[in-house]
Amino acid sequence: MVDTSPSRAMRSHSESWFDRVPPAYWVLGVILLVVPAFASPFIMGEVFARAFIMGIIALSLMFLGGYGGMVSIAQMAFAGFAGYMVAVFGSSAITEISQGWPWWVVIPLALFLTVLFSTAVGWLAVRTEGIYTIMITLAIAAAFFYFTRQNYDIFNGFQGFNSVLPPQLFGVDWRGPYAFYYLSLFWAVLAYAVVLYISRAPFGLALQGVRDNPRRMAALGYNVTAHRVAAYAFAGLVAGIGGILLTWQLSQISPGTVSIGAAIDVLVIAVVGGLRHPIGAFIGAFIFVVLETFAKDFLVTLGMAGERFQLVIGLGFLLIVFFSPDGLLGLWERFRAARDRDPLTGEDRGHRAS
Amino acid sequence: MTDTSVITRETSALGGAGYALELRDISKSFGALEALSGINMSVRPGERRAVLGSNGAGKTTLFNCITGDFPPTTGSIRFFGEDVTVFPAQERIRRGLRRTYQISLLFTGLTVLDNVYLACRGVSRGRFSFVRPRRGDALMQTAEELVETVHLRDAIQTPVSELSYGQQRQLEIAMALSGAPRFILFDEPAAGLSPTERVELIHILTGLPGHVGYIIIEHDMDVALRVSEHVTMMHNGRIFKEGKPAEIEEDPEVQALYLGGSDE
What we know:
The structure holds 2 protein chains of 2 kinds.
Chain A: H1 6-11, H2 17-20, H3 23-38, H4 41-67, H5 75-89, H6 103-125, H7 131-150, E1 161-162, E2 168-169, E3 172-173, H8 177-199, H9 202-212, H10 214-219, H11 224-250, E4 252-253, H12 260-273, H13 279-301, H14 309-323, H15 327-340
Antiparallel strand pairs in A: 1-4, 2-3
Helix pairs in contact in A: 4-8, 4-11, 4-12, 4-13, 5-6, 5-11, 6-11, 8-11, 9-11, 12-13, 13-14
Chain B: H1 5-11, E1 21-30, E2 33-43, E3 48-53, H2 59-67, E4 74-79, E5 82-83, H3 89-94, E6 97-99, H4 112-122, H5 138-149, H6 165-176, E7 183-187, H7 195-206, E8 213-217, H8 221-227, E9 230-235, E10 238-243, H9 245-250, H10 252-259
Parallel strand pairs in B: 3-8, 3-9, 6-7, 7-8
Antiparallel strand pairs in B: 1-2, 1-4, 4-5, 9-10
């Protein structure tokens, strides 16, 4: 269980932020920084950068589901909406629609509009609970997908937009494999750190209270509905950042990016990784992207049709959910608890390493 | 002696009105079941009142109507002169109304201090703050003082799931005292407590500042009559007797119906 309490936050003020970062994170950080020295551009772009981006989008779902108890299928729609807005207001090959505005206007505007969109969806969705929240957000995701496919004035219908590229800043081509790797790594780390920080702030703590007992939270003076809608707004911002990066990575945005299958992929990533901690979104994304990238070759090696790679992903998903409803993080925590348990007495020996 | 300075300090700025709580013709129906009918009650600021009655008399339903957990079918509720009948629960809480629950509704994954901190934050600004509390945070200090008020200092960093039942009830009271309470509804605070814990509870309730009134629902007559100055008896969703604790205790009808064993 992650200690997300403000009192923990206060206790830890006596330590510097440097001391508070677990050693494993430093090791991981160094590895991720030096990956480009060893990996091919394909691995950097199609595996790592894509995993960071899908991790950011799944992180927005983890924030809503893990801290807020609201499972939204619409996160990919928010991400895609941000990507579309960048294409519409920025530059693309579809010059009849794209406005060609400067990036410093386009990116904040795209994120602002995405937050408005997610807030409106949240305002609708928070009036439901459980399976009904899933259904209403699924309906919104489906409606957005069909709308983008049928609307040619803004979304350019079936074709969408191609040649949507990141801006050339500081003399760097941010679409280049090295630059884009570090760009997506930076935003993944920032999104992860911000979500973790907020989970220990009053807003995040109250959101967890709303998840555990909304009636009690109302009796403590909290506006439960407003908290839930605000969570959707923030999750929309996170998904929007991921969506812009995804659009740049693919150099295009089209209805296929926001399809129902893509929306379900985000759910699979979040659940496989585990909804209990923000790191689960990135673990799930890495596994998903590796399977997505290499399962085709693996199946062909076995003499099966490569197009059936979704079958491998589906089987992996079933296995993980079957053995650990809390995802891979749940498996790890159970392993750690078993390791720390005295085999004779069954008591916790209390030397849990993090 | 219970330290209630933190509650006094926060409430002193609030003014009063004729009645702290006025209920007029309150009724509540669930389909064909009439849980409350024609309830009229006026409670002065600082007054301590016990509401007694057998199971199913409508006591907790009455509390739920007062706090806004659900609206009454008919009637009006005024809190310090303001009509709050249609107000959502959080608006009533922000006006100084608090309650505890019959079954502890605590955040069991959090520590004692964090539970009280959440309660303090709920009635202050910054509920949507994205910034973590800093060292010396005023709300955190208030939360620590409230934990001390209910004698849970030794368990301040203990997860709620590890507290005894009695300690959880004490924590419920600390959460009800957070912010600037003007009136508190205690729903069976002594249920499940040991004799020692009941004595502790009586000390906490009698030690509350004079201007903080409350209504207590309690099956333990000893506790209820010792901490209240006025008693309302309920039966089948109606008020059927009111008076001083001694009068109620001596009343033959009450004894027949409630003290001497209910006919339900």
